[in-house]
Amino acid sequence: MSTTPTQPVTRDQPEILKPSSPVRDRYFDLLRALALFRVVLYHLMGWAWLPLVFPSMGVMFALAGNLMARSLRSRPPLHVVRGRMRRLLPPLWLLGAVGVTGMLAQGWGPDAEGHPGWWWLHLTFWILPLSDPPYAEGLAGIQGLVGEDWAAELAGPLWYLRAYLWFVLLSPFLLKALRALPLATILAPIALSAAFEFGYLALPGERFPSALTDFSTFGACWILGMAHQEGVLKRIPQYVVPSVAPAIACLGLWYALEHGFRQGHDLDEIPFAQSVWSFATVLLLLHLSPSWTEWPDRLRHWRRLITLLNTRAVTIYLWHNACILVAATLWDRLWNVDVLADQYAWLLESPWPVLVLVWLLIGGCVVAFGWAEDLAARRKPRLWPDGAERGRTAKHR
Predict the structure, then answer these.
(1) Residue 264: band (very low, low, confident or very high) from pLDDT cuts 50, 70, 90
(2) What DSSP character marks residue 75?
C-alpha cells in the first residue's frame, strides 16, 4: 500500500500572525497551534471528520479578524493594512522564488495557458495574490524524492493568502459596518453564502469568484473575531451563545450530511455547510475564551512548541504540503527493501511514521525559510524562535 497522499488540495489551511502577548492571547496562541497541527494532520490523513472536530480555517480567520480590529483601534487604517501586507508578502515571495524557478526549469513558460501575455500578467499574482497564482500542472517529480504534480501541492495552500489579503483590505470598511449594524454585518456573509448555494446569486467571471466564495464562507468568522475585540459579543446575555451555537452547528452538519458529506468529500466542497458550522464553532470558542495571564500547569510544558508554531505559522503553512509530498515519496522507497516489504508491510502502510517525517521536514523548512518571517516583521532573523531565549533572559532579571 502506497503512502503517497491522494487527498486533493483543499482550503483547510493558517493566519498570518505575529506572536501575541496580551492577556487573552495565550488562549488564542493555543487555538492557532492546534489549528496548524490539525491542518497538517488532515492533509496527510484525509479524514473528513477532522474539520468537524476543529474547523481550523474558521478559527484562524476569527483570530486574524480579532488582531486586525485591535490594530485598527489604535492605528490609522492605511498603516495597519500596509503592515499586514508587509508581513504577508516576503514569505510568499520566497516560496515563489523556489517554486516558480523549479517550474521554469521543468519547461513551464508563457505558452502554458495558451496566451503568453496573460501568462506574464497572471505571474504577478505570485507578487500580490489578489487572485490564485498560476502553476504548472502535471509536472514530473524527482524520482525517489518528490512526487508528481509537486507544483500543485506547492501552490495549493496559497488560497489562504489570497483570502487573507482580501479580508485585510476590506477590514476598515467591515469594522465601520460592524459598529453601525453589528448583527447584520456578522450575518451578511452567511446570507451571501446561502444566496450562492440556493441559486439566488451567480458567481461572475472566471478568476475572481473564488474571493467571493471565500468571503461568503469565512467572512462571518473574521467579523466575529472583530466583534469579540470590539466587545460586541460581551453585550450578549451569557446564556444565549451556549444555547444557540449548538443548534446552528447542527444545522450546518445536517446540511452537509444531506449533500454528500463523506470520506474524500469534505466541508470545503459544501461552502454553505462550512460557513454555518465554522460560524457556530467560532462563536462558541470566543464565548468560552478564558483570560490566561500565565500558561495553565497542564500546558506549561508545551509553551515552547506553541510559541514556535505561532512564530513560524506562515512558514509551516506555506511549506507543509510540499513536506507531505516529499515525506510520502521517501517513505514509499522503503517498499523496495524486500525485508521491510515482506516482514513489516503493516509499518509501511501506516501513515504515522510519515507524519513524524513530515514534521521533521517542516522543522527543516523552519530553519531554512523561517527567517523571511523575521525580516517581514522587521526582527532579527532567528533559526528556532521557540521563546527559550526570552525565558532565560526573564530568569536572569
Answers:
(1) low
(2) S
